[in-house]
From TrEMBL, chains A, B:
Alphabetical GO biological process terms: carbohydrate metabolic process
Transmembrane segments: none
Family, similarity comment: Belongs to the glycosyl hydrolase 65 family.
InterPro entries reported for this sequence: 6-hairpin_glycosidase_sf, 6hp_glycosidase-like_sf, Gal_mutarotase_sf_dom, GH65_N, Glyco_hydro_65_C, Glyco_hydro_65_M, Glyco_hydro_65_N, Malt_Pase/Glycosyl_Hdrlase
Descriptive protein name: Maltose phosphorylase
Domain Glycoside hydrolase family 65 N-terminal residues, every copy: 17-269
Residues that coordinate or bind substrate: W360, D361, K598, Q599
Pfam families (UniProt xref): Glyco_hydro_65C, Glyco_hydro_65m, Glyco_hydro_65N
Length: 773, 773
């Protein structure tokens, strides 16, 4: 039903491309992206490429408030659209072979290969160029060190196979880079400083002053070049926003000539502006002294450590194996929790679309993975990020004329920077996810101390928003929430979206619980400063008791919103392949009126508050909604995989797993050329851990209920749970759980199991209940 | 409740400003606009003005497809946004008094006065400038001839009151003009030709080539200057997109010096490109030969003729009198039906906002006036305009994936050129107004021949659209229309907007009637070519029988849309003045969720299909909806005035009349600085003729049921009805109707009345029934 576009070989630890795909070049560029949390880039070529491509290098936390573009302005819109900005191209190395510029778009080449080595975090490219019967072998290696975050390294190796000749390398730094998605084709950068001499150069760019008074950033890229080969001459040139070296060498048939380009990427987020160049130079000197091999080794060792904790092994399904590793690799390349000023952008360092750094995706989809695969401070950093942005959230609510805090749909600072009214003004369920993340964190880690100050600040502010956003329907004597867009963005401006109402009421209930907890444990010193009145608390309570939830008695399902059942209700399976994805093939009018659901909506609520619904409720709603769901949001398949697994719908769970795990590798949504779907990359992990292995953590109790897909021999993964380091292995006939930490009690298939410190438990794999199917 | 901003004196035939309002300069510029159907302009000063102002001259039918600006693209959006374009400034005359440039923003002046003389179609300005005790009296007269449409005339007279000195006049043509609302600050014009010599000059501009393949336009402005005074020297200069003369004169104390600037404004819409300059010169020569006084006289005579037919006299209420004349003046300045390629833009020639030439306003609000105050061919031209654009309407429907014709919200060519999804994709009720206009025209004029070809083309195409746009609700066994925006644009994406459903069903019924009429009268030759199948016809019939209309039994009202009654229903009178207008003070989110109604919605249906509803139905719905209506669309008050009058709510009718009649004069909606609300200017006329006088024409029967507002002594107006020319005079105690034409039977207060050819009938004024109140 969906046409896939798979460009890459299936290998457990690598993404391999053996053909230069000029037609799908951008798609391959996205997939071949590298990142190290501090910076990242698309899989661009170092040398010239005259075909269609998208040069993209991005630095974490460096953004620009682009002038907004809307049709007709609506009151409440933010003033600017915050953008991750495309920055200095520091990987560039133009290459002239015998005075002819190397350009793979127009060359005759053979033995082309590009490999993303996920185990070691290295991108390599190799090919043989044939020019007038002269054959030259080229091999390029690139990595962004995760041991030394400000360091990028390129090794460019050339061997003339059947001739003697010349090569010219022109390593350069080019600051004349523009966002493709700039609303007014505006350049966001100005040059501040540049210097160049033999084998080195430096370029400092600064983001333009802007009328919105958001911070500006300085970015310095500093390069040093080493050559292993017979250099004939070196010259340098300096142009507007550009510096380069021009290095001429003699080539001898069969002999290798190698250029090493080391680049330091430093910004005034981390250093004084005046020090940027020197810091870069020092960093390069220090590292070059170590030598290429040592730098690479240190980088790889860090990747080994990451994989040691987080790797998920799957035996018997190479595509599934490659998919989960690709997701984890790109996710960790984007964010590994070291910097609490950062968050997880929807495209990471792989593209520009969507703008902004932070979406509700972080809380809804990414937090569980970081809770389970890193130390608690990483997850806490994600929460603190939102707490720090509370002022922005107050601002957003005020913009709508409402009390309390409205966390933004898209932001860098807490202030909303997206503007489509149906999203910005209406997709307010995001506020529920922010509150839910606090519950999730505290419940998972047991760190109730977080509630005392930051937690209650955010919870009470969100609750105040909900209490002002509802209205009372006098006739029906219920509270309602009108004019919202639910998680299903294929419907806008609906009334009483069940999920939004659910999360609003849940937030109010949880906030009331937390207040009670703080008060009864004498932890309410900070709480008292928040001026919550009795009337306010009473109103919150009343809303939780009198909220309206659309429900259909006949179908015994929760109704997505007031008039959903009035639609022409048909299954997505009736759509033809030519119509998919709908968002590219159908008019918006047709999409809005159709019953087709972009991503989990009612089911998103059953996923979050899983423990509050019966299996029968989950089953009925899943059976009703999933067939109408087109999963055209990258966030959709994982939620369905988890629920399908719980319901014993193993085939559906397996299908959804593949869809989320290989979303970008197989370009399911036909938009990976714009960049990878970073924030939904936790989906594969969620599908395996919460889905196939059935991990649940509600009410501070850990449980599993694993099954194994029919085609798999085994799968295994590790999780960090409080002070336990747990390894779970599921094979055809058994489940093996071992743990490091104090004695652990958990639930396995509904039965309590004790695992002693450093102990292991093995029990038989249980077949899923299928009575409900 | 509403704060008014009245800058002008109240006079029956004039708009007079006695203070130079630098703060509200744009507002005054809008009100002081002139137009002659071929061209028009804001009330800009001829000489330099360094304060805030908006230079605006517009030429009918000359437009440009501006690159669109939206937030996130939605499938189905049009490619461009069509704009009326700001054109060469041809009125400009810089003036130097004793070498000092005249600039009213910074001068000391006294006796300032600006007058728009509506009876004669002339704008004058007079003032005395005081520079170093030297006093100079200035008087400027400007008109755009309606006798010679391509001719503009300015008379600029100077008298040094207490000194001898110099004056320099610099009459110029400036083509370097840009739309303020250009999306990308783009210039839409390029220079093609210019020439200048003593006392004359010419400038030809061409609209830029555009990537959308819409037509380009050439605009030539040609000036000739005459001087009545002692010329010392004349020089000319030519610059980029600019030509001028510089004329130095000696001034003698107490003696008048006068400059006449005659400008011909010619375009390739009317002439060959190569002839434009010569045509302009010939036109100027011919007219200058006549002399200023004669040109003015011919212009004024045409205005007398217009007023003779259309003037509405009101005795006892100077504000009301001024209001209706201002509306008629500006309306006729925009469109007087001479050119079937043109339509009535929402801002006419007075501003840029909204873009586009044609809205549903024409059919819904303007057609009745042109039907009654002009020969039938004028109204037919408005219909033909839409018939000619049927291909565009097919295109628009295809863009949404739908069959048939969807007339655009905003257009020049029939192709939609507006893009806010909630308007373009959803405000489809406009299609109903296009169909209704055909009924209105045929019913009013009796010209059934129009149905044979053009009429049935449009009706069947719109019906095909409706039949594809509805969906069948299997559960409730009714047809529904989801995802629409009704006339109340303060709600978007609602389901089953009662008005939209009503007009859809009405269109289908009327189309079926017309088909039956054509078939049974052997007029179906063209109809047969339209390939309407029996199944299609049957489907249409079924929809008319099974359409769902929201209705509340308890309140006994038609419900605006499915969930309207779930809102917090409060009256607009509870809003504070600081909150008005809502669209400027409230967030869009708050507006959408509120019950407040921008303009007649359910009541719009009761206005159009007035004869299909009982008085009791009208009363109940009026009483329910009007109190929630904020009338923030300029189209709102008139409809409410008509219905209030019918319901005997005389005070409400009177309030609504004033609001529509003086909307711009008193700047009710706080946006007149952007331009006048041209298309809603028929509102005052509708309020008097259909409201106070109760004129109805449904079912080919003419009727009246007049009342007179308490403060008025009498009012009278004329209408053309078929071959009758009818004059109606309503005074405190009687109604007098006289007519020219064959014997006429009409209904007066429900009773048949015969008026013989050239006869008059006088009957006592009847008091309104108030039993329903």
């Amino acid at each position: 039903m969906i046409t896939l576009n798979r460009l890459f070989d299936v290998e457990p630890w690598k993404i391999v491309e053996n053909t230069l795909n000029t037609k799908d070049f951008r798609l391959a560029e996205s997939v071949m992206s590298l990142g190290n949390g501090h910076m990242g880039m698309r899989g661009n070529f170092e040398e010239k490429y005259s075909g269609d491509f998208h040069q993209g290098s991005y630095i974490a936390g460096v953004w620009f408030p682009d002038k907004t573009r809307v049709g007709w302005w609506k009151n409440g819109y933010p003033n600017y659209f915050g953008k991750v900005i495309n920055s200095t191209n520091f990987i560039g190395i133009n290459v002239l072979l015998n005075s002819q510029e190397l350009d793979l778009f127009s060359e005759t080449i053979k033995d082309y290969s590009r490999e993303l080595d996920m185990k070691h975090g290295v991108l390599t490219r190799s090919f043989t160029v044939i020019q007038d019967k002269k054959e030259t072998s080229v091999k390029v290696t690139r990595f962004l060190s995760i041991a030394e975050k400000e360091l990028a390294v390129i090794k460019y190796e050339i061997i003339p196979l059947n001739y003697d000749g010349d090569v010219t390398f022109i390593p350069y730094l080019d600051g004349d880079i523009r966002n493709e998605d700039s609303n007014y084709e505006e350049d966001f950068w100005v040059e501040v400083n540049k210097e160049v001499s033999s084998f080195e150069g430096s370029l400092t760019m600064k983001t333009k002053d802007n009328p919105f008074n958001t911070p500006t950033f300085h970015l310095t890229t500093t390069m040093k070049v080493e050559i292993d080969g017979p250099v004939r001459s070196v010259t340098s040139s300096i142009e507007n926003e550009y510096v380069d070296n021009q290095i001429d060498l003699e080539l001898t048939k069969g002999q290798s000539t190698t250029l090493y380009k080391y680049v330091a990427v430093t910004t005034d987020r981390d250093h004084e502006v005046g020090d940027l160049v020197q810091v870069g130079k020092d960093l390069l000197s220090k590292n070059i002294e170590k030598g290429y091999q040592q730098i690479l080794k240190e980088h790889q060792e860090q990747w080994f450590k990451r994989w040691e904790i987080a790797d998920v092994e799957i035996d018997g399904d190479p595509e599934a194996q490659q998919g989960i590793r690709f997701n984890l690799f790109q996710l960790f390349s984007t964010y590994y929790g070291e910097d609490s000023r950062l968050n997880i952008g929807p495209k990471g360092f792989t593209g520009e679309k969507y703008g902004g750094a932070t979406y509700w995706d972080t809380e809804a989809y990414a937090l569980p993975l970081y809770l389970a695969t890193a130390t608690p401070d990483v997850a806490e950093n994600l929460l603190r990020y939102r707490h720090k942005q509370l002022d922005g959230a107050f601002h957003n609510a005020r913009q709508q004329g409402l009390k309390g805090a409205l966390y933004p749909m898209v932001t860098f600072t807490g202030v909303e920077c997206h503007n489509e009214w149906e999203i910005t003004f209406e997709e307010i369920h995001r506020n529920g996810a922010i509150a839910y993340a606090i519950y999730n964190y505290v419940n998972y880690t047991g760190d109730k101390g977080y509630l005392k100050r930051n937690g209650i600040d955010v919870l009470s502010s969100i609750s105040r928003f909900w209490a002002d956003r509802v209205h009372y329907n006098n006739k029906k004597e219920v509270y309602m929430i009108h004019g919202v867009t639910g998680p299903n963005e294929y419907e806008n401006n609906v009334n009483n979206n069940w999920y939004t109402n659910l999360m609003a009421v849940w937030t109010l209930k949880y906030t009331l619980e937390v207040i009670e907890y703080l008060q009864s444990n004498n932890l309410d010193e900070h709480l008292k400063t928040l001026d919550l009145t009795d009337a306010e608390i009473a109103k919150w309570k009343e809303i939780t008791e009198k909220m309206y939830f659309p429900y259909d008695k006949e179908l015994d399902i929760f109704v997505q919103h007031d008039t959903f059942l009035d639609k022409d209700l048909i299954h997505a399976s009736t759509l033809s392949p030519e119509e998919r994805p709908l968002n590219q093939k159908w008019s918006w009018d047709k999409i809005l009126r159709s019953c087709f659901i972009k991503q989990a909506d009612v089911l998103q609520g059953m996923y979050f508050l899983n423990h509050e619904f019966t299996l029968s409720e989950k089953k009925k709603n899943f059976d009703f909604y999933e067939p109408m769901t087109v999963h055209e949001s990258s966030l959709s398949p994982s939620i369905h995989a988890v629920l399908a697994a719980e319901l014993g719908l193993e085939e559906k769970a397996f299908e959804m797993y593949h869809r989320t795990a290989r979303l970008d590798l197989d370009n399911y949504n036909n938009d990976t050329e714009d960049g990878l779907h970073i924030t939904s990359m936790t989906g594969a992990w969620l599908s395996i851990v919460q889905g196939f292995a059935g991990m649940r953590t509600a009410n501070e109790a850990l449980s599993f209920a694993p099954f194994i897909p029919a085609s798999w021999n085994f799968y295994q993964f590790n999780i960090v749970y409080r002070d336990h380091y747990i390894k779970l292995n599921v094979c055809k006939d058994s489940v093996k759980i071992s743990q490091q930490g104090s004695d652990l009690t958990l639930t396995l298939y509904g039965e309590k199991v004790q695992i002693p410190s450093e102990g292991t438990v093995i029990i038989p794999l249980k077949q899923k209940e299928t009575t409900l199917q």
